[in-house]
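Hello forum,

I keep getting stuck at the same step: I have a sequence, I want structure tokens, and every attempt I make locally crashes halfway through. Rather than fight my setup again tonight, could one of you with a working pipeline run this one for me? It's a single chain of 676 residues.
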Amino acid sequence: MTHKKDNPIFDQKNIVTSSPNILDHIPSAIYIKDLEGRYLYVNFEYISLLNIERQSIYGKKDTEVLPDNIASLSRNFDNKVIKNEKTLSFDESLELTDGIHTYHSTKFPLYNDSGLLYGMCSFSTDITILLQAKEDLAQSKEKFEAIFNNTFQLIGLMTLDGRLIEANKTSLDMIGAKPNDVLGKYFWDTPWWTHSTEYQEQLKIGVNKAAKGESVRFETTHNDLSGIPNYMDFSITPVKNAKGEIIFLIPEGRNISDLKLTQLKLHESESKYRALFDLSSNAMLLLENEVISECNDAAATMLGYDDPQELIGKSAKDISPEFQPDGDHSYTKAKIMMQNAYKFGRHRFEWYHKKPDGTISPVDISLTHIPESGKRILHAIWIDISAQKRAEKEIILLNKDLKARVDTQTKALEFSKDLIEDTQEKLVISEQKAYLSDLLPGISHEINTPMGVSVTTASYLNKTLTQIVKKFKNNELTKSEFLKFLEDAQMASSTVLSNLDRAASLIFSIKDIATDQISESRRMFNLRKYIDEILLSLHNELKKTSHKIVIKCPDALSISSYPGIYSQILTNFIMNSVHHGFCDECIGEIYIDIDVKGTSLFIDYKDNGSGMDEESLSNVFEPFYTTRREEGNSGLGMHIVFNLVTEKLGGTIHAMSHKGKGVHFHIEIPLDAIPN
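Reply #2:
Ran it on my machine without issues. Output:
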């Protein structure tokens, strides 16, 4: 560093006149010192910071106006600038009356017109508020990212033309993608949408509407990594700036697969209940606030009405005599019975009702309380017990009734035996007789056992009946003998009926192998969407695995056929792959390729599972063939698939497989020749 020794000290007047009022009003604290550290100039901000008079500081050094620790630190920095003749910038903290403030200071050397160093200048700017703002901004960003990436919803940001600029972790995890895989692309070209051209077009329309300020919402599906469709409640919300201009769009997706599944199950449950209610042979009614609100045909018939609607709005007193046999008033007793049902949940009792023609009939009534907010609802089942009451009065005719029952049961037994022999003959003649010949002894044993018990019991009952009749004619029948006979007869009758029911169930289970169990009507349906519904119904089974299902089927493919058949076929295929083709630790892959060529529908089902050896492949469609009988498998699944394809749909099916290389089923169905 060089400077003239006789260099005069620049006084405050020279400094101020060279920069009139400019430095004074700058919000940074500014001072100028000579080479010895004496103050030549300070602005208003600096004297305000030190809380001293301006004139009292000129010509003084830091040690004369500042605390020792601050004066020493300030002089050290000043000396570095003067010694090195270089600018120095740093942050420093200063405790003021209102707390600690952080200043960003810049110190630099000063030269005169001759280029000689004569002093240094310092600018110190209070950046406390700026630093706090940065910290608040960082915290705000952290909170936003935490909410954005940890929410269970799928959220993103789009430009007004539909390009994706942000996607949260939940949405990326769903398709197994990284940000670079999708950001910058049109949203409809990302994996969330490419499985369906129909949904892609719907999204494009939605983006266009949202860009014009309209909020958009619709249901769609997004396939996960396994290829299973997840039903989504999707929305697009436009975001505006302070001027009311739309600056970007927020797409959101809420997974409603569980809700959809619940709705499907609820619909199925409601359909089953409605079918049970409407078609049941038992009389069923619904009472709301003790008044009939619904009833089935069986109830109308039992109560003597032509149309169930005639009963709607009637109460117990409208369909009952004034008094019950025990002398209680019907209206009062009905109130008590219904109160018991409300209190205990259900109540059962005998009742006498009156038909429109005045006939009085006994019934057995079961009331069940159905809790529903704000309503008093009872479900009633009425069983006609007129026959039971007549039997109690006509016990003397029981022997004749019992003989008639035994004869009827014997005929039913003979019919069952003929049916078994006929079924066995057909099974033996069929192409499966080689395998069934090994299985029939077991089936025959299962059927012959209940038949043998029925024949033995019927013979015993017939013998006992003959003895009772003989004693009755000879007036030798005692009351105790007769009551014992009634007890034995009731037990024998129950035994015969239960064993006949068991035999009949076995017989019809054999017949079901060769007969159609499909009762669904033919209708027009979208095959692609129906497959999605099938996969959704299997969600509880599939979610336990990591298997991947890939569906290739035209979105707009609609056919006139029997959807229930396709459900059985694909369900059998998928469950066979899951339970037999894939091991517990495997990550299996299933491919279902569906296409239409000409007037034929082609279905190719493939998996990469364990496959089949030659023997299993040659018998795959044979009834009762299974390699896992010890695990309870019947071996009828693929046989049923074969019958559904060839007989119900009029098509063909071929199986191809090698051990360890998966399976391949090829199905061809003529769409113009499906049997009605």
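Confidence is low (pLDDT under 50) at residues 1-13, 427-443, 508-519. If your local run keeps crashing, start a new thread with the error log.
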